[in-house]
Amino acid sequence: MARRLRGVTRPDENCTYSYQDWLTWEGAWELIHGKAYNMTPSPNSTHQFIVGELYYALRSFFQNRKCYVFVAPLDVMFSEHLDYDSPEHVVQPDISVVCAKEQVSKQGCHGAPSLLVEVLSPSTALKDFNEKFNLYQKYGVQEYWIVDPGNRTVHVNTLQEGVYSIRSTYTEQDIVQSILFRELQIPLHQLFSI
């Protein structure tokens, strides 16, 4: 994570901010198009169970494939001009798969990971389906999984010519299939077992 400076304790979620502002905030915040998104309250036990199961499955799959799997909090930074000293956007996806070692720094991940996973919470669902969907598509995240615990589904979005045009929805009886990593298949019955 980026080093935080002392300053503002809580930004106004109705104002517009920069990365330099973000550095001064206390607590866990995301910055998307200048808007501050509070990352609290903490996720519930179902959310954490799903993240843990997915992290284990992804870590096991990628352990010999030159990709790195990170669980939140990891700051993923997106910049129009590839200026990661002052990126326009900073997010903390639930799980990030980074397949280019040069993107990883002490501050987090610079640029689009290959695969991002967000597990919906009531407070984040709209942001994950809208702002983050559009952000990840714009900056070239090759595959974006949205896990919906309430409906017990996983939505897999894969970029094709810069747009998430390949969209698949899997239910708890299915095996989720990555388009980007063809051998990656995860049975979902265990994911939704609690």
Key features?
disordered N terminus; 194 residues; 14 strands; 4 helices; six-stranded mixed sheet; alpha+beta; 31% strand; tt1808, chain A
Q: Summarize the biggest pleated sheet.
A: 6 strands, mixed
**Total domains, how many?**
1
Q: Give the termini separation.
A: 31 Å
Structural class: alpha+beta
According to CATH, what is the class?
A: Alpha Beta
**Secondary-structure element string:** HEEHEEEEEEEHHEEEEE
- CATH fold type: tt1808, chain A
Can you offer a commentary on this structure?
The protein is α+β, with helices and mostly antiparallel strands and 194 residues long. The chain has a single domain, classed as tt1808, chain A, CATH 3.90.1570.10. The chain has a six-stranded mixed β-sheet. The longest helix is centred in the first third of the chain and has 18 residues. The protein is globular and about 45 Å long. The N terminus is likely disordered.
